[in-house]
Every structure is written in C-alpha cells, then in structure tokens.
Amino acid sequence: MEESKQPKYCKYLRAKNPYGMLEGGENPWMIPFESNTICWCIKSSGASGPDNGLVHPDKCVEGRSCYKPAFD
Q1: d(CA 30, CA 38)
Q2: What are the pLDDT digits (tens) for 8-61?
Q3: 20 DSSP β-pair partners
Q4: C-alpha distances in angstroms, 18 versus 22, 31, 64, 70?
Q5: CB contact at 8 A, 16 and 37
Q6: What Rg value do the Cα atoms of the chain yield, rounded?
Q7: What does the pLDDT read at residue 15?
Q8: Which pLDDT value is given to residue 43?
C-alpha cells in the first residue's frame, strides 16, 4: 500500500478479531470482519478514548483531541 494512501488512524488504537491481532504487515489496519473485531485504546485502556469518545477505526481519526497519527 502506498504511504500516501495509508489510513490516518490514531497510534493508540488497537484491534483484535477472531483471526488474531491487526498490527504490522502490508495492511496493518485491514479489518476484514468489522462486526467481529474488538477495538480498544492503549492510552485509556478501554473501549472509550481519553476524550470519552468511542474507540473504533471510523472514530479514531484526525480531529479528536486525543488523536496522534500512527503513520508519520
């Protein structure tokens, strides 16, 4: 995947689905089964971020007060 086309997720976002962790590799944030994926924030250690917003790949993006880019 080209670097300019990488999703701009927060570096504190983590996800796990029934098939394992979603970190590293060519497509680190490809979530094939979103309904089966568990997301959490490593900064707040829970399902809500430090700003009390929902932790989800669609939500942990630029614009949130706690957002830090994962890919610089």
Answers
A1: 13
A2: 778 888 877 655 555 545 555 566 556 667 888 999 999 999 999 999 888 888
A3: 17
A4: 10, 11, 28, 23
A5: yes
A6: 12
A7: 79
A8: 93
Give the C-alpha separation, 48 to 50, whole Å: 7
Question: What does residue 69 show for φ and ψ, rounded to 5 degrees?
Answer: -60, 135
Torsion angle (degrees, nearest 10) of CA 37, 42, 44, 45: 70
- The model's pTM is 0.68
Q: What angle do CA 16, 12, 35 make, to 5 degrees?
A: 30
pLDDT at 33: 59
CA distance 15 to 49: 14
